[in-house]
Write a structure and sequence with these properties.
By secondary structure, this protein is mostly helical.
């Protein structure tokens, strides 16, 4: 999932860069001299209205792109946070996997001790059983 998130982040960053470039272009186009230059060859009875209309269109596009840039920034932060979480989760899982794959150095010692206790218990039962049998035979009990 971290790789998918990184791909999404890359796409957001690419779109964000495109929007920033277009915003720079709009800033240039919004300069009064460039708006005037846009209508240089156009004859009109009301050139002020044409220039104002052009300025409004450019400003509307700029406002729309600024809002889009804010959404990209929010998406970028959300994706970066999700990537950090996914990386941490992957690290924890790999650490757990490595821990379970490692051989327990105390395992052979524990097995030896358990075997000794088990053998000791069996020997103790045999000894006690033979003692009980001897005592019973001395007292004259039949088995």
């Amino acid at each position: 999932t971290a790789e998918k998130l990184r791909t999404q982040l890359s796409e957001v960053l690419d779109r964000e860069a495109e929007v920033k470039i277009r915003l720079q272009e709009l800033d240039l186009e919004l300069k009064p001299e460039n708006i005037e230059r846009h209508f240089a060859g156009v004859g009109s009875v009301h050139p002020e209205e044409l220039r104002e209309s052009r300025r409004k269109q450019l400003q509307i596009e700029k406002d729309r792109l600024l809002a889009q840039l804010d959404r990209f920034a929010t998406s970028r932060l959300r994706l970066e946070s999700a990537i950090t979480s996914a990386d941490a989760k992957a690290y924890q899982q790999s650490a757990l996997g490595a821990a379970t794959l490692q051989r327990d150095p105390n395992r052979s010692t524990r097995l030896r001790n358990a075997t000794r206790v088990l053998i000791g218990g069996v020997v103790l039962m045999l000894v006690l059983g033979s003692l009980v049998l001897r005592v019973a035979m001395r007292r004259g009990h039949k088995l």
